[in-house]
Every structure is written in C-alpha cells, then in structure tokens.
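As promised in the previous annual report, we have extended the structural survey to additional targets. Below is the entry for Glycosyltransferase RgtA/B/C/D-like domain-containing protein.
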Amino acid sequence: MMISLKNLFSNVSRFFPYLIYIVLIGFIFSFRSQLDQSGPYVTSDGAIKLYQSFQYKESGPFSLECVYPAKEIDPSYSYYPIHYPWAIFHAEGLPCVLEYPPFFLWIGTFVWKLFSLQAVFWIPLFFYAAAILFLDWVFRGWNLHGSLRAFLVLLSFFSFPLVTAIDYTENPLFILLYLIGYFFLFRTEEEGASIKTFFLSGLFLGLAFVLRLEILIPFVLLFAFSFTYHKNIKFSFWMGVGFTIPALFLFFYNFSVSGHILGFRYVSSIQDNENASAGLLLRFQLLKAYLFGDSVMVGILRFQPFVGVMLVTFASLYRTLYRHKFIFIGITAAVGSMILIPLTVTFYGGVGYFGLRYLEPSFFLLILSFGFLLSREDLSKRKIPAYLLFISIIVSFYFNYHSTKEGLKILRNSAKEMGILQTWLGKSENYVVHSSLYTSIFMGRSFLDKKHVQLTGNTEGNSFLEKVPAKENLVFLLSPDSIYISPDIPKKIHPRFQTPLYLNKLPLKIKEEMKLNGITIVFAEKI
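The corresponding structure token record, generated without further manual editing, is:
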C-alpha cells in the first residue's frame, strides 16, 4: 500500500508541471479568442505590423511604400494617420515607409494568404507555447523538481512577457530564439566547452538579433565574460561567427532598403527622436522608470518582484558563486544588461507595462541563471533557506499574478471598447477622419477597410471635404480637449495631436455622436 501511494505521488509530481502548462497555454489561446469576439483586436505596434503584413500580401514581400487606402485623394501622404515612431516620410525616394523589420511579418503574410486574417493572430501564441515548453525542457534536463520547474516557468511566462505576446508581435519567437541561444551557452558549462555549442549559441542569439536589436547588449556581455572565463579565443571566435552570420544578413537587407545597416527604425530614431543625444539626467530617469517605475511606466521590480527575490538569493549565496563561475557570468550579464539597456534607449518603450519588453532578454537570462544555480545547489539540505525561498516564490507569484491580471484586464476592456468603435467606423461609406494622431492607435482592422485620414485644423478639414462628394456619410474621431502626449513624441508633431477640428464650421450635417473613453465619435453627412 505504501509503495502504491509512493508511486502515485511520484506520478502526480511528474505530470504536475504539464498539467500547469496545458492550463496556461489553454488560457492564453482562450483569452486571445475572447479579445477577438467583436472582430480582430489589434492596436498600437501590433496594428502597424498587421498593416505591413497586409502591404506585403497585396504588393509583394519586398514592397516598401506604406499601405494607404486613401492614397487616391492624398498621393503626397499629407493626411496619413500614422506617424512617429512607426512611419518615416520621404526616405529613399518614397513618400512613406512603415519601419518594422519584415522578417517575422513575412510569416504573418504567408499564413494570411494560406488561411485567414484570424490565423495571423495565433502565430505569436504558438511560439509563446513553444518557449514555455522549451524552458521546462531545459529545467527538466537540469533535474529541477517538478513543482519548482512549474513555478519558475509560471513566474516567467505568466508575467509581463504575456501582456505583450497577446498582440501581433515577433516577441514570442524572439524569446524562443534567445532561450535556445542561452541554453547552448549554459551547455558549455554542463558538458564542457566545444566549438559546436559556442557556434550554435551565437547563431541563435544572432537570429534573435535579426528580430529585435535589444539582444545585442546581453550578447556582448556574455561574449566578453565567456572569453574571460574560458580564456580560449577559439571558442569566442566561433560564438562571434555564429552571431555574425544572421547579423550580416540583417545589415545587408537594411542597407539595401534604407541606406543604413540598422534600418528605417534606427534612421527614424535619429532623425525624429529629440532625445537621441539625451543627457545623463534623462538617461538615469529612464533607468529608474524601467527598474522601479514612474508616472509613465511600470518598473520591472514593481511588476515582477521575483526579480528582487532572485537578486537577494544570489547575494546570499555569493560564496557559492565562486564555485560556479559560469552562473556568476549569467547573473552579471543579466543585471548588467538590465541596467545598460535603459541607459542606451533614450526613450520610454511604452506606457505602463509595455516598455518592459526591452528587458525581457535580461529577465530570462536571470531566470536561467537562477534555475542553473538551484540545479547545482541542493537547498533541501539547508531547511531555513529552502523554506524562505519557497515562501518568497509564493509571495512573488501572488504579486506578479495581480500585476499580470491587471494588464490582461486592460487588454480585455480595450477590446470591448475597440468592438464598439469598429461598429461605429463601419457606418462610414468610405472615409474616417481623425482630428488627432492620438486616435490613430484605435483604427484597428478598419484601416484596411475604410479610408482613414488625419486632418490638422479646419483649413485642412475644408480642403479635404472639397474632395468628398455631397451627401456622403463620414465618421469623425475627435480627441479629448486635454490629452496625454508621450515624452517620446517629437515636439514638431505636437500640433497634429493638439489642433482641434470644429465640425460646426465645416460643411457637415451631424446625424449621431457618442463619447467613448474620452473620444467623441461623430457620424455626419457632407452637405
């Protein structure tokens, strides 16, 4: 009887993590389906990436000129409703270029052509699920206990990476690629250094670099620290070769289309970002915001207190780290990049939790270093530290759960409002008019179905309406009188956020109007 019970508990312990992952992955797909109940939910960065995928679908994978349904009445893109930091104007002889790298978006274009638009939104979730299972596979290979594995994976993926992965984004594939790159680097400690493992580590980190540039700082730190640890230039050389192969492909593509090896987004950040040469004070303000939060964004230590728990654990086991120098390398590279990235970006990565995506490579490197340490140190022999760590993990999960739940609540409410807004936009025969760039983030799928324009003031309003036939029905989106403008937005385009349209002074007959989240939606007829 005792043996049967022991076997039962052993089997439960073995399958417990997978039960957790099935529930987590099922929840993620279910939540995405709920967001799409009133139509495809996409906004902000995800919306721009969707428009680029549509552009590649309609005009070919190498097309550059911005998709613009209203181009027939505005060939100069004067009324284009998308601007910094997503579009750059008059670059390489083109009136407008959407700035995101195309590599992940080509996958979306292929899926869209093969299946449907709805299938496009599932792509990031499949990569996210793969990253969840891969991290568990790594921890299982390190012989971590099932319950500990499950908690570490949950703390990693039911956290701030989830609230960005729900969107149409390359982030989940980016996470999967650099996790594989990190894994090969840790494998050099497990099985001994070899040219193959260093090359593969560099190669996968290079592939991640093709998708998002912020992996560069963790890679450089790992590269430098690994060289000092192994003291073998041959290994470092092949790690560098692995990274360089995909990086050269990226540089070649970027230079061929934009004239700069880092692409249109970098050109825009220099050309339009007024903080490109930010001083030390602003850089340290951004560092504080990314780590501890401020009035614009939530810091990583506030959203995910487990980061603090890991740092305290590392500090308390500092003597142990002398026996595991490679773990020390991982920790140093993770913490170093967590500090250096905010000091180099010179802008907020987004409002609220959204900017934390820049710190995800550092966060996952810290998680892997922590798991590797626990696999090397049997804390069960030290009951008090083990109990303290277990309690800290539970408490961290509680606070992280509430932060993540709040982030998902914001997405759910946003999707409901987007559904109402899309219904109103559908009343327009052709044109949707934005009084401000502020409302352009709410265009969603409608941008591909209707002709959206952004008009600055009544002079532009009159000029535009002269081109619209009489008795045509339009929808106007009017910004609130007082709106928040992100510190990232260049002052030269502030008028496109703040100049109102006075509809009573335009040749319009107002039929209906309503307010939604501060925005006034007006259904009107041209007279």
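The chain has a mean pLDDT of 88. The first strand starts at residue 87 and ends at 91. These points will be discussed at the next consortium meeting with the crystallography subgroup.
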